[in-house]
Design goal:
The complex is a heterodimer. Chain A is α/β, with parallel strands linked by helices. Chain A is built from 17 helices and 22 strands. In chain A, a hairpin with a 2-residue loop joins β17 and β18. The longest helix of chain B is centred in the C-terminal third of the chain and has 33 residues. The chains are: A alpha/beta, B mainly alpha.
Chain lengths: 492, 324
């Protein structure tokens, strides 16, 4: 029998146009707490989705305790001993703890044997040293407690491996201190934990082995005792950036936008910054840092509670996206299919929607005017489409993204917020979009660029704000803009 | 014309072809069926449903739904007839009826906007309004049928002769023009296809959506007024189940329930088809109960074809993905 509880051999996963996993081999020792880290988009989640049955690998093999493992979906993986605890729990708040643990696998023959269900649930939680009222609805428990219910649920499947995706991201310091002994307990019982986290401190505190992923590849692996923090960060971000980005040549001018003490609910607190003419201002941070929320607050999609926004020194009130647009702000959203484009409509109609007044004569929309606009942008941005009347379904991600950009260019806004502008598009199209950003800033437009791809924000930004937990943790300029500095600011 | 084209036409106009067949068969058996007078009669019968269906079309294209139209038809009729009987100027009386419709529509729209509702919420909210408004329509006359004291004039002319048809087709033509040719119409399609995209494109989603309900309410009110004028009386339950006939006309016309895509012109065709079908079945001596079954099946067929078409379209797209 193999010494590894899990072996993933030469796993490759290809999505149309993207190699998400490139020949990744991962071995996990039984009873270890194995950390898996990497930037957003490095391939951690994809790898874990191959492991928990969500995706099937394009090529490669899985072995569980030395036996070949073929998975048919999440439930199958669970039954074979691989459970995953996602950041968003898979619990139903209105059902009791016991019901959640045994959801879909009720005890008893014809009718549900509640006594046995509750007793079994109680026993599982007791084995973790916990004493919960298992008949209470899950919604009445705290986040930390719900996480423990998830662990009990995994145990009820006789889990051999539990994958935890950022398990401490929504826990308080105190809760984390209570959470670690439970993980230790799992380890003592021979259960293997794969621990995904951005928090390096935690990894050095409780993990045995750390594997680092970058760009869909496994770039390093080491026992935690033989590696230090700096080396891990270097592995995470280190890469060559030759000719991946066009050089920036614009010198920013006068102040265009100033945000003062902006706060919104629990997601944003006291944010102040400014943006200059012709500037690309980058915003880096982890997923959930509040970057998109900040963009939406400025654009008016989700108006701010406190604070003020000034454009060219004049205070403006932006309570809706319409007012955002009127104040010359446009936003390219991070999910173009859900919020950027109507895929059922043509290239033309998607572009002209932001400024229909410009293609009207009287009250009537003129086809020729619309077509002229569409033709102009198809040529300018090199949008590859068989026709301007083509619906957007058939266009590639890169070309769809160019249509989103066109619609805001046509509306002629001066401030463009780009949220993950190159997500899910191929390298060539990325370069075109970077070049376009340069051209636009040369023409005097100002850009706020939100990106989870560090190399991209580092190379394209004139200045970089680093956000964490709804606050701006720091501003980096010129020589300070390095991956290490960003990571230092976001890692606790 | 090659075979694929023929199949495409069959697919896109399947229901029309079925109805055409019914018309031809009926026409062969019954000489009175395909006469100008009979067809005019059918049009007159569908005019009220058609007027209301035009408003419903806007609502559905805009990504919503309005179940309250039947009750509004009743309410507007009761208000107008009662006002006239009380000696109110007939123009004002009609205005009161229409205003009641607009008011109900605005309440619908505001409530749905407040909860940021989609089709499902619109369904529930307007159903609630349907029940409330139906009850309100019963109060003024204590649920009784009221005979109108109507002298010849503006109000009386609305339901006479070809007037209902003129109103119906005039409104439909105007609304189709607005839908296809103006900024308002384009915005409606965008909101209906994808509310979030519309919002993130800087469009005023809330105000636009409220307007669709207001228009639906207005036209339901107008439908109620025309109906009362035709029968020179008001029945507080005249609009009972009316919304189902209206939705049937829209769906058979081919407007997609999922929003975004549709046409007022096709709703006219849908309303006429349902009218002609009822008339043909009458002439063929089929009982009202059996007619209900046929009508229900027609709606199922329309929705089924719509879904089938979408699936085929998606499959074709998967094949066509040359530019990926």
């Amino acid at each position: 029998m193999s010494e590894y509880v899990l072996e993933m051999k030469e796993i490759t996963k290809i999505f149309p146009g993207v190699i998400a996993l490139d020949n990744v081999s991962l071995q996990v020792t039984k009873g270890a707490i194995h950390a898996l880290i990497g930037e957003n988009g490095a391939g951690k989640s994809t790898l874990m989705k191959v492991l928990n049955g969500v995706y099937t690998a394009t090529s490669g093999e899985l072995f569980l305790e030395g036996q070949p493992l073929i998975l048919h979906g999440v439930r199958d993986a669970q039954e074979k001993g691989i459970s995953t605890i996602f950041q968003e729990f898979n619990l139903i708040n209105t059902l009791s703890v016991a019901e959640n643990i045994f959801l879909g696998r009720y005890q008893g023959k014809k009718t549900i044997d509640w006594k046995k269900t509750n007793k079994d649930a109680h026993n599982l939680l007791s084995s973790l040293g916990l004493d919960f009222d298992v008949t209470k609805p899950v919604g009445r428990f705290s986040t930390a407690e719900r996480q423990l219910v998830e662990i009990a649920k995994a145990l009820s499947y006789q889990a051999k491996i539990i994958v935890m995706d950022e398990p401490t991201s929504s826990l308080t310091k105190k809760e984390i201190e209570l959470f670690f002994p439970i993980i230790q307990k799992l380890k003592d019982e021979g259960i293997t934990v794969i621990y995904i986290s951005h928090k390096l401190d935690e990894i050095f505190q409780i993990c045995d082995v750390v594997s680092v992923m970058r760009d869909g590849k496994l770039v390093g692996e080491s026992p935690v005792s033989e590696i230090n923090r700096e080396q891990v960060i270097e592995l995470m971000v280190g890469r060559t950036m030759e000719a991946e980005f066009p050089p920036r040549t614009v010198t920013p001018g006068e102040k265009v936008l100033e945000v003062k003490h902006l706060s919104r609910g629990t997601t944003l607190s006291d944010i102040s910054f400014d943006l200059h003419k012709g500037e690309i201002l980058g915003i880096a941070g982890l997923v959930g840092a509040g970057r998109t929320e900040l963009a939406e607050a400025i654009f008016g999609a989700d108006p701010l509670d406190k604070g003020s926004i000034e454009i060219y020194g004049k205070p403006v009130s932006i309570r809706s996206t319409k007012e955002g647009k009127r104040n010359s702000i446009g936003m390219v959203t991070e999910d173009r299919k859900a919020t950027g484009l109507v895929l059922d409509m043509s290239v033309t109609k998607n572009i002209t929607i932001t400024k229909l007044d410009a293609v009207k004569k009287g009250v009537v929309l003129r086809k020729q005017k619309e077509a002229a606009v569409a033709d102009e942008y198809v040529e300018k941005l090199n949008i590859k489409t068989p026709s301007i009347n083509q619906t957007l379904y058939n266009l590639s991600g890169g070309n769809q993204q160019k249509v989103v950009l066109s619609k805001w260019l046509f509306s002629n806004v001066e401030i463009l917020i780009l949220d993950e502008p190159t997500r899910g598009i191929d390298v060539g199209a990325k370069y075109e979009i970077y070049s376009l950003m340069n051209t636009l800033t040369e023409q005097g437009k100002s850009i706020i660029m939100i990106s989870s791809e560090l190399p991209e924000v580092l190379s394209m930004s004139d200045r970089l704000l680093v956000m964490h937990k709804g606050e701006i943790k720091g501003e980096l300029r010129d020589g300070q803009m390095t991956a290490d500095n960003v990571m230092q600011l976001v890692i606790e | 014309m090659n075979r694929k084209k023929v199949i495409d036409i069959m697919r896109n106009n399947g229901i029309l072809l079925v109805i055409l067949l019914l018309i031809i068969v009926t026409g062969i058996f019954e000489r009175n069926f395909l006469t100008f007078n009979n067809l005019l009669n059918v049009l007159r019968q569908v005019a009220v449903v058609g007027i209301v269906a035009c408003g419903m079309t806007y609502c559905i294209i805009g990504g919503a739904f309005d179940l309250s139209v039947g009750s509004v038809v009743s309410l507007a009729g009761v208000i107008t007839i009662l006002s006239i009987n009380n000696g109110t100027n007939e123009y004002l009386a009609v205005l009161y009826g229409l205003s009641a419709g607009v008011a109900v529509g605005i309440i619908n729209g505001v409530l749905i906007s407040l909860i940021n509702g989609r089709t499902g919420e619109a369904f529930i909210v307007t159903y609630g309004m349907q029940v409330v408004v139906a009850a309100i329509a019963l109060f003024p006359s204590r649920g009784l049928f009221i005979s109108g004291r109507i002298s010849p004039g503006f109000f009386k002319s609305m339901g006479e002769g070809v007037m209902p048809i003129v109103i119906f087709l005039g409104i439909a033509a105007f609304m189709e023009f607005v839908l296809v040719k103006t900024k308002y119409g384009r915005t409606m399609s965008f909101i209906g296809y994808n509310l979030d995209v519309a919002k993130m494109s800087g469009l005023n989603v809330k105000l636009n959506r409220i307007s669709y309900f207001a228009i639906s309410g207005l036209l339901a009110g107008l439908g109620g007024v025309v109906l009362c004028s035709r029968v020179t009386s008001s029945n507080p339950t005249a609009g009972l189940n009316f919304e189902m006939d209206v939705i049937a006309a829209v769906v058979v016309g081919g407007t997609q329930l999922s929003g975004g895509s549709g046409s007022v012109g096709r709703t006219v065709i849908g309303a006429v088809i349902i009218g002609i079908m009822g008339n043909a079945l009458n002439i063929l001596g089929i009982t009202a109960y059996h007619q209900q079954i046929v009508k229900g099946m027609l709606i199922l067929l329309a929705v089924g074809m719509d879904i089938l078409n979408k699936q085929i379209k998606l499959k074709e797209m998967a094949h066509d993905k040359v530019f990926a």
